[in-house]
């Protein structure tokens, strides 16, 4: 069964600090992995997409990594801001499937 | 640039009532989706439409029906609402399948009492 596990479930950090969120998956055959940011009361918004051949991809202060061998991805947030407070969702798509597998998300709170 | 628009934003239903959630996208996307999001459960796919004229069941289709009215619009109907259908519902669209970036609406918060 395809699964996506995210850790930690929740995280509290101080403004300006860095943090790393983890995503482990067992989706097969792997097609791509996306990180979404979901602000409270809003729909998810895509941050990055990683394909099999990509190891690292950045989007401003967000950097995603992918290790296809160990089936792990991480999302690193640099110099956090209050606006980074949100839920971060890892989504993995399997080749040939319209139904991606969603992780349950990591809730990040950035305190001033 | 409206993107994906859902209506209504909030709704309270009594058990057994019916209602239709509306969704429209203006990005000329082929694929559209309905998800529900419950605390601690993450997003779960209810139904999807890979292209105009087709619809398919997702992970949790029971109690729901959908209509792909045209390329822009994809509606979700609850025929006889149950308290277990209390959730936040998200409509999404993508150019072609979930391997392309999905754009989500702002959600409909539905409470069934």
Describe this protein's structure.
The complex is a heterodimer of chains A (112) and B (113). Chain A is built from no helices and eleven strands. Chain A is mostly beta strands and 112 residues long. In chain A, strands 2, 4, 5, 9, 10 and 11 form a six-stranded mixed beta sheet that branches. Chain B is an all-beta fold and 113 residues long. Chain B is built from no helices and eleven strands. Chain B has strands at 4-7, 10-13, 19-25, 31-38, 42-49, 56-57, 64-68, 74-78, 87-94, 102-104, 108-112. In chain B, strands 2, 4, 5, 6, 9, 10 and 11 form a seven-stranded mixed beta sheet that branches. Chain B has a four-stranded antiparallel beta sheet with strand order 1-3-8-7, with no helix packed on it. The mean pLDDT of chain B is 94. Chain A binds chain B through residues 31-32, 34, 41-46, 49, 89, 91, 93, 97-100, 102-105, and chain B through 4, 31, 40-45, 48, 50, 56, 58-59, 90, 92, 97-99, 101-107.
